[in-house]
Fold each of these.
Amino acid sequence: MLKISQLHKSYPIGDSSLHVLKGIDLSVEDGEMVAIMGSSGSGKSTLLNIIGMLDEADEGEYILDGLPIKDLTEKKAAVYRNKFLGFIFQSFNLINYKTALENVALPLYYQGMKRKQRQELAMFHLEKVGLAGWAQHLPKELSGGQNQRVAIARALAANPKLLLADEPTGALDTKTSYEIMEFIQQLNDEGKTILMVTHEEDIANMCKRIVRLRDGVIMEDKKVKQVRAEQYV
Amino acid sequence: MFDIDLWREIFQSINKNRTRSLLSGFTVAFAILLFTILFGIANGLKNTFAEAFVDDANNSIFIRSGRTTKAHKGLQAGRRIQFKNEDFNYIKDDFGNKVEFITARIYRNAQASFRNEQNNYSLRAVHPDHQFLEKTKIKEGRYINQNDLQNRTKIVVIGRLVEEDLFLKTTALGKYINLNGIQYKVVGIFTDDGGDNEERLIYIPITTAQHIYGNNDYIDQINLTYNPEMDYNQAIAFSSLLTRKLKDRFSVARSDQRAVRVRNMAEGTKQVDAMTGGLTVIILVIGFGTLIAGIVGISNIMIFIVKERTKEIGIRKALGASPRSIVSIILIESILITAIAGYVGLIIGVGVLELVGPSLEEYFIKNPGVNNSLVIGATITLIVAGAIAGYLPAKKASRIKPIVALRND
């Protein structure tokens, strides 16, 4: 699914620069569910952003689904993001003046799908996350957990190969977090490849593999026995 | 290609962000409103100046006679100079190529009546050319023609208000009006921009008047317009020459200011032209000032809007929006708002001018109005300015890395 080798990234800070990623090697197979862990400043979010083509690496190789991701034009990056990737953010990042249904339909709009078709598809995904009854509500009228589920539905709408989640439970209480995790696990069961950044051990243990970063290098990369979220719900 | 989904996105964005849309729209509408009103008022001032000279053709020359004030060639002072048909013909024959229209005038007063209505009116006996000299507009029927002159027909052309006074609600055309006991057929009704007095006049053929009032060939005044191809200096030279020749003809001292008086409107026209020229400059300054204020306003708002939407742009980019679609959604939205708001400002401005225009006449502002193409031009300028002002930040925003846009601040 994806293969990364010797990835480097640094950010300029004033006159000097901060070397955030210092040669990352990582490969993820289809159907995996990987948690990237690390304390803040370890470079975990940067890595996820590079994988998500939201940011560019300075050095190194990144191959996504057989396609080398390098020197992409903005236009091409937009097409790849739309086709291959689904994003789930800590702060949901829904467009606040659009209803749940419209938010979910947005990636389909950028795919050029017809209005009727994309509304049906968006509705289907909203049903899947259990929010069909909330389709016409604005993000501000929904709870945090509901918003994150709308965001998940949106990430799924374009049927991406890879789902990227940046602290998906970071803004939620424990109970809601487990509900969301249960849902993400279900998606993984259905075959979606999932990559998530988290700093919570219990959330990480609900994945199948944990990659620990420290100071820009991978300290540990191990498969774990998945803890099912439904037992806590 | 017309992309209905793009427009749907834009309308939704406008509709759901009403405060923002209204604010930016307000700026544009207000700029155009001010522009329209200021321009209209300045135009009104200009109209007032033009008005003073609108009644008569502004290349007119009026020739009147009076009594001599100086003895000359053995003739005493105080002699009365009387123009006759031969003088009219002399000017027509000798200066034909410099004259555009020419008419003689005889002034009389007449007691006019039709059935039970009667009133006193000024009578002017004239040649057919008089119509063009006075800028008389025929409302119904016809003006005096050459045939009337030859046959001394008893016909009249009456002003709109004469018809109103005497014929009440009925039409005067073809009816007979009684002037001092003689019946004249009404062959035409006219209007005139020169005011009510000008529309309370009765015109009759000059030959008819000469025949009926005294059976002589006297005329009171000669009006003419000089060939409009002549420039100001040539026109002044022409009227000086005319004055000299006429004074010689009547054996009047050249320094005699009363016996033959030639008044050339070109002298006044030049001053009016200078005045309106000055006003035009003021109008232009006002116009550009308002426009620049509007451009600065809309530019500020566009920069602000793009900044405010940075996060939304980041989200859209993460979901697969191309930079081009980001730029077009922001630009079209701003152009749409500017265009609609500009139109609203224009309508309100024109409405205000229509509403208060008539009451401004006492402040020397007449018919304040604006040239539509001018205001539309101003609106387009604002739209273009808004588009440029929006394009640069929108372009920048579309290049922003989504991760920067999405960063929580």
Amino acid sequence: MTNPAIQFEKISRHFGDVKAVDEVDLEIRDGEFFSMLGPSGSGKTTCLRMIAGFDRPTSGRILLYGQDVSDLPPFQRDVNTVFQDYALFPHMTIEGNIGYGLMIKKVPVSERKRQVDEMLDLVQLPGFHWRKPSQLSGGQRQRVALARALINHPKVLLLDEPLGALDLKLRQQMQVELKAIQKKVGITFIFVTHDQEEALTMSDRIAVFRDGKIEQIGTPAEIYERPATTFVAGFVGTSNLISGETAKRITGDARMFSVRPEKIHLATANEKIPAEMYSADGVVREVIYLGLYTRYMVELDGGETLVVIEQNLKSTSMDVLKAKDQPTRLLWSKDHINHLGA
Amino acid sequence: MPSKYSAEKASLGLRLGALGTLLFLYVPILIIFLYAFTTDEKTFSFPLPGLTTKWFGVALGRADLWSALTLSLQIALIATASALILGTLAAAAVYRSNFFGKDAISLLLILPIALPGIVTGIALRSAIGSLDIPFSYWTIVIGHATFCIVVVYNNVLARFRRMQGSQVEASMDLGANSFQTFRYVVLPNIATALLAGGMLAFALSFDEVIVTTFTAGQQTTLPIWIFSQLTRPRDRPVTNVVAMFVILITFLPIFFAQKISAEASDTEGDK
């Protein structure tokens, strides 16, 4: 088996008293699309910058395919970065930008030209050689930044929220494309984002960061269906957290659990409770019609409010709005609850 | 570009005011141009008794004038060159790193341009004197560099602040070491700022009188030569001829410096 692409051994990065990254251990596998997900200030970007070499760990070691790179400057590491602001060189043409790494390595001009052509094809910008970055749209600059990094065939490609500046449609399109490009080139991608949907869409595995530590590492499905902590349950998607008395009444166990809003079925007040289901009674307090689905806020008899999402398969807005202030019975499968630690 | 200027005409009063200001600024200069061609060699009589170009010939033949001009050009070039290097380094240090007293140092760098020349001059004179350095060509260069550094520093720092994003990091990330990054990324980004700052510094140095008076030994720069002519009214029109050339020599770099800065900000990120 090959070495992991990236290994963190007790990596810490302190800025004065602030522990931006706090004793993180991490292993990123060869060839995977790995996302670092977390709110701003959670340490994910600092981790990325330490892999790139722009930042040095206060303590700990970083291994790149088994080689200790902790003390190497950025230009001696076999990784490349796609920056959040793209950081294209405004005074160079697109060809100059993409060929920059090869120019520095003194690759002959004809060979450089051939590889730039190849990259422009890969990112679907054929014929853009002589344009300047200022003449491109945000999405096109994004592709150039990607090509400029990939042309060096890095062992690991780092992406620092590269889709943040794009509008929603373009972002969704780029998500699919990025994933396809990663499959094609077979390079390990490390993707930093605060957008949980983005992370769920593209990743093989996700690490959820909070306050300089990793809360959970897992596949998108694991993270979503089996969040390990209340933070993960709340940060990735929406979760209903139920604990104490109410939990005991529903499951017979006072331990806290989470259940996703879309797993809950909104039934009539007296509907029969099947054996494999949990149930809770309450009153619909709020109905928010969102086209594709409707979001209900249901106040349980115990006082908690649960969020329930139902797709509008047959109902229209007129139907769903009638549910407001009606008593209801919530039903969900016993498989769909997830007991949480802290 | 029609969009750049308002189509509406300014009011009559405003236009008269603008005209008045321009006249106020430029009539004295026009007078110098005019009296460079007079046949009267002692007084400023008007109307001119006659027109002649003989003073240009007289000016060309004056060896003291030529040596003053050469000295001024040399000093301006050397002061500008050292200001370009030192100003850029200072700007890079202040922009790139955070250190204790950074703001204070930034202020100290800018201060010489605001300090009255007479203060700078007298300070330099006593400093140079107390160090037992003979007043010479090089003391003049040092004096000029004090205010030349400022304009370069300011121009380059402003450009650094406008430089887009993480270009330096991107360059290092793509395998370039510090020198290559400077050569291929930083320098092209600040090139026009260096040109503009350099031209301005050159113009400042070329017509400097006060600091030069305090830091020069026996040397006579062109402005000092002109100044000394005031007490010798004999070839007065020659002075005017020289003044005319000084105006042209200083006007051109400032004109181009302005054009370059304006272009750079118009087409930011579009070079």
